[in-house]
Amino acid sequence: MNILLLGSGGREHALAWKMADSPLTERLYCAPGNAGIAQQAQCVSLDLTDHTAIVAFCREHRIDLVVVGPEAPLCAGIVDDLESAGVKAFGPSRAAAQLERSKGFTKDLCRANGIPTAAYERFKHAPAAKAYIRSHGAPIVVKADGLAAGKGVIVAQSEAEAEAAVDMMFGGGLGEAGGEVVIEEFLDGEEASFFALCDGETAIPLATAQDHKRAFDGDKGPNTGGMGAYSPAPNIDAEMSDRIMNDIIAPTMRATKAIGTPYKGVLYAGLMITRHGPKLIEYNARFGDPETQVLMPRLMSDLVPALLASRDGVLKSFDLRWYETPALTVVMAARGYPGHYARGTVIEGLDEAAAVEGVQIFHAGTKAEGGRILANGGRVLNVSATGKTVRKAQARAYAAIARIRWPEGFYRRDIGWRAVERETSA
Ligand SMILES: Nc1ncnc2c1ncn2[C@@H]1O[C@H](COP(=O)(O)OP(=O)(O)O)[C@@H](O)[C@H]1O
Ligand SMILES: [Mg+2]
Hints:
The protein is α+β, with helices and mostly antiparallel strands. The chain is about 30% helix and about 30% strand. Strands 10, 11, 12, 13, 14, 15, 17, 20 and 21 form a nine-stranded antiparallel sheet that branches. Strands 3-2-1-4-5 form a five-stranded parallel sheet, sandwiched between helices. A four-stranded antiparallel sheet has the order 6-9-7-8, with helices on both faces. Strand 1, helix 1 (about 10-20) and strand 2 form a beta-alpha-beta unit. Helix 7 (about 125-135) runs antiparallel to helix 8. Adenosine-5'-diphosphate binds near residues 118, 153, 155, 281 and 282. Adenosine-5'-diphosphate binds near residues 191 and 270.
């Protein structure tokens, strides 16, 4: 098969690395890709917003399957446009991607189908939103309805903070994404990410993960796209996984099918595991980043037939095998991220780092120039490792990082601390 992967981050490098391994893969292209992806795929400079150009590329290069990494093209209908041009594409339709594009839509779907989630209301105007905040009190959570690149959620500790968030959102602080807000109950518990593969009818569980969103050690500092992750999530055992499939994922599959927008692709559930069981925080319509960088090293089965089965609607009798061993990834970012940072600094030592046993380095924001690897983004590298325990995987990842020479980069030194603490006390 000739496969075109869309995207340019660490998630896409992990997918490219896994798909390049498949005996089914003849040619692998990636648009636009990065310096690491170029080791497994031929990178092509296509504009992901130009669907006509992507369709033309697929025809010219006889692409048998397009795999979409990020949410933006999915929400813009890339799968619809490819499929109507006769090109097979992995991922949800624009209508099905509404599960990620609109938090209000997902909340209503939960309410109508008895899917456990925080109590909430949707608002289009500030006065009603503020009245709701005052009647419920803090802590309370204010969310922009639309896509806000991780900046659309305020977990407010006081009513004043929640009201300020409402003013910011309705004041246009998040653009169109904040034209409507969801205000919801604060959930107490421990978070986890749960990934399922769906074909419009059937969903099968993939694996679980936990991530670290804050920039600095001790889960302090500003929010980021994610500074590290590990899989599996220690708070989801087999019984909890069944419960999540039965109470959350399966009813979502039935409900989306019933309203005429059957869900295909990866369904990524952000969950809070509370005293009263698992509750849905949000859905994403794609693989996670950096979670994919710990899922792919744990996947024993071939990924390509699984993606095809999702697209073709034949997941019912499909079986995926996973390694039991945990995986952990540490993100190396450019100093200053998530604020202002420099591009073009030189990274050395990657080959020595990759030689550490069990380590796989995924590039997130890099480019190759004159035989050197340069930083080309905020999150730049993902150093992933597997090991018999999370602690072992963690030690391997940090041993690899010690071999990387990049003075303009930084990383957290405590990725996986919660899981390691659990292992130590067990
Ligand atoms: N109801 C809630 N109770 C407690 N924390 C929440 C709640 N909703 C969201 N959060 C916190 O805010 C983070 C971001 O919220 P989420 O809905 O996942 O939005 P996004 O990922 O689109 O920014 C979550 O990972 C969680 O830490
Ligand atoms: Mg989230």
